[in-house]
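Build the 3D complex.
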Amino acid sequence: MSTVVEPTLTDVQMVVEEVWNSFLGGEDPLVVGAPGEVPTGWSAAVTVTGAWEGMVSVELPAGTAEEVCRRMLGVEETHDEDVADAVGELVNMIGGNVKSLMPGPSVLSLPVVAAGRVARSSDTTEVCRIDAWWAGAPLQVCVHVHRGH
Amino acid sequence: MKILVADDSRVMRQIVIRTLRQAGYAGHDIVEAENGRQALDLVHSESPDLVLSDWNMPEMNGIDLLAALRSAGSTVPFGFVTSEGSPDMRARASAGGALFLIAKPFTPEAFDEALAPVLKG
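Done.
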């Protein structure tokens, strides 16, 4: 029987907090551990394939994704193309750092971004979930692994 | 001096350029590329003094860009700015001829530490 190798909740939380504090912190710190239903807005995912196989995803309400874009780009007005870019870069940074914590060698995919919920393969299991609040709204970061991997 | 910033994310290119300013490198000319292929062309046409490149990009990734530059005889100083900072990736970057690897998320201090030997040296 194979063992599912998974990142610890503490490690993923540290990664998420570091990304947020570096590029989105300031007046609105990320508050981890406050579960809330995330209204469907934007989501993004990256997959890792190789010695460790998994998927890291982020889900944000639409207004929060736009705020992420405003803060990262330093602009007031946002366009969908830039919001998708910003949300994709968020999950790219979180996923890349999670990949670095796991056994290698492995390959990180380019981010897939969706207006709505990202689709997950039915043979994956959620092994880690960070519920958090930022800028007055809930968001979620999840790690899924393939069953039996 | 001229710095080429290669990243498929426009948002990240802007953050890199902003961080360069915050790190004290405000006066340099910046050239932007959306992928490794475009960066390769721009190194030849723009002759930058430094390339800051993402690793994971469409068309041509950063490590293939570095290999293409070195096999073409280019000795342009090259550093990665990437979300993947594992020892394995750092070793691959170094073996390919990169001077440094800055892991995302980064700080202006990390930029200065990596760039000072190249741009102030």
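The beta strands of chain B are 2-6, 29-33, 50-53, 78-82, 100-103.
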